[in-house]
Amino acid sequence: MSMGPRRCLTLLFLVGAADALGIHREGAAPARPHLLGGEGGDGGASAAKSPTAVDLDLGSFVAVGSASATRRWGVQLFSVELPKEHGGEVACVNCDISAFAKWVQATFLGIESSELDAASPGTIADGQKHPNAPGYKRWQEQQKAGSKFLQLDAISEERRQPVQAVAVRNLGNLSVKIQGLDPTDVEAMRPQLQRMWSERRLILGPGSDPLNERMGFVEALVFLARGSPALLVDDCGPAMPHCQTLISNGLKPAASAGMLYNALVQSFGPSLLEKHTFNSSWSAEEERVHVQALLSALKGGYRFYRQSCLAPRASPSSSGPMGGGCNPRAASELIGRIACRPEEDGPSDGCVYSELRQCVGGACDASDAGSTAFFEYARLHGPLALFQTRETRSHVMGQCEEFSRAAYAMLASLGFEARYVLDFTDHVWVEVKLQNASGGNTTWVHADPSEGVLDQPLIYEKGWGKNLTMIFAFTPWSVEHVTARYTSDYAATVQRRAVPEDVLQGVLAEAQKRLERELPLRSWGDGAGSLSRDRSFADLALWGHFGDAVALPTAVAAR
Measured between alpha carbons, how far is 80 from 100 in angstroms, rounded to an integer? Predict the structure, then answer.
């Protein structure tokens, strides 16, 4: 039987789509695995020879060859079996067992412990990551130690967590089960753990990747690109069904252009926006003046999160010595990550996860029965939710990730061409396309909204003393390696990352090909893929690396 041209074209499209999505067709050779370095017919030997067969250990961000893909270590799982009326089992991976037990008591049983505080009284939140971010001192010490960021097949000893036998520890009125899981156990329990995550009954302990996740380097770049923001123009064409919309988190609509502009008006007022809306008649110097003004307005209008106590002030009328609630200037400690609360986990919120934290240092009024030392700090990607933090979090927008996404939304809404930039040594900013200061064509210019600075690309290397490795600029359809723009010694960055230039170029070429040719993993407009509760552990580990700006507690295991 013969087929007409239309049916033949349809069949070719379906076959191509199946190949792009990695679906095996009967009678055809198996498609290459989506995660690089997977096993093939030769046991992975051919994959290991490919320049793109490089995986990332998502906890240490160490590059490892596919041949070592099975080398993982165990984890500790703490769990409490609650009565059914309280939700059943609650668990935590690699967390502080004491803090976990106290959170369970306070959250599910309504019992506040009098021993919540782990720090000395009067502790004030002043955590630093760089001069304007938490965790800076710890990060700075690691940088001065000369540790390499990407070093092939070299994973630090602290990642080799011991696997312990099953035990039970009684804490207060709770019996906490302690279970050591080897990699095989983790894989067997993964569906159960993923379900518990989606139900907000699982905490992932401190550290960006407590479950020792791996992801192909190409896969990671594609994922980050598709998760970057982009404001689509009026005439975006039939291939883009969300014109006049800001997309993010896997090509999902996050805000219409009108909603975004209204949010900016509410935050900064119409006069500032009108004054700094892009005008093609501006000179190169004028462009920079206007962009600098917008960066300064964003930095001045919102606050950077510095590990402070954001626990709600439940009972302001309390007669206690602190007047009820918790001291917002006190410090807090991280317990782990948890899926975002339903009210913060809508498609437009872009909530990746929430940091479950506890206020320390006598931060909370013990006489206020309505207060709790525990709170959740949501890591938001959605521009509307970010600008609304002036009300929901008293202008505490977040950290470099949140400020950079807000800056992109602001610049793009006002007519500037911008893109999202990730420093793999843990920092985020944007670039904006401006006229060359010396005249001629346009160029991408560094813009760091966390610091409120423009066109200072060497600030990280020269000003902060960072040992840079790799920096990438993203749009949902492109990835560019831009490290050379931010260093005066590119050869040193190559040595530190320990990934040869030809391997990196091969990775970039493959990632770009996939961004241009592959269908998205999830359909357009489906909000489910952007919800915190639906995210995979690999997704969480990857974003956790860039969002993790906290000093780890001294105890991360049962002691």
Answer: 10
